[in-house]
Amino acid sequence: MKKIMLTGFRPTGRLHLGHLHGNIKNMIKYQHEYNNFFFIVDWHALSTEYQNPKEIKTNLIECAVDLVALGIDPKLTNLYRQSDIPEISELFLYFAMFTPISWLERCPTYKEQIKEIKSKDLSTLGFLSYPVLMAADILIVNADVIPVGEDQLPHLEITREIARRFNFLYGGYFKEPVELLSSSTRVPGIDGRKMSKSYDNAVFLTDEYDTIKKKVRQMITDPKRIHPTDPGNPSICNVFAFYNIYRNNDIREIDIKEIEERCKNGKIGCTACKDEVSALIFETLKDFQQKRKELENDPARIYKILEDGKNRVREIARVTISEVRNKMGID
User: Fold this and answer.
1) Domain locations in the chain?
2) Is domain 209-292 given the CATH code 1.10.240.10 in the classification?
3) 294 has a pLDDT exceeding 90
4) Is the pLDDT at 44 greater than 80, yes or no?
5) pTM for the whole structure
């Protein structure tokens, strides 16, 4: 029997290359290895976007369209919306009754975001209790494996602590999920920083060729290279990084060694190289963009996928809540 894997995706806007190569490609691969639960975390999004709930609703459907167009297969993956599973909120309530506030306040991610994000008031119960809701997300399906980045490990450890505390107080029931540290690819933005919507440096998956070309033309290359025939240093060039990212693409064969040598020997200028990368990016996105248009023209299909996912997950969630109530003696 396949182990249960669960991961969530925040509906915070258009997807970009960083999302695709940093997380989603892993999820597409994992579909064939695990019993996969992939959900769109609209409640979690409210913890920081509580002033714009309507925007979350719009982004949620757009996110579902993107995921299916990219290759998340509803026949292999339970794709659902967090808020469609009311049992999650009930389990969150039970966990909140015995989770010490100190566990949440000591979480490094919480402390960092409170310190760094000044544009929003995050001194809220919803933001503080984010890890408790995450624990409910995971344990409602008793997941075995959670793909996370290193920055999310403290959250997952709180999930394990909550599972241990429940099992100690009321008798063993919950598994302690283990992490799967994802080998995600760092995708540079047009300014050299990590690609992020917040930095306004992203190439979006829906961008047309001319838009991609314009953005890639702004990317930072070797600052010492003045003329096209000057030797370049690909190790400090953000454009060269994209050749490494796309070296195993299905569209065009890429010879990294040859590309590296022509840069070092001044056989190609930076502008020509950027245009080559722009064309490569666009070619790899054409299939996705076509599928996305088809799904946009058939919204009923996306709603049906989310509805089917909801129904399958709620069957599991109802059993979990029934067992939890029984263990706690409140059924």
Assistant:
1) 4-187+299-328, 209-292
2) yes
3) yes
4) yes
5) 0.88
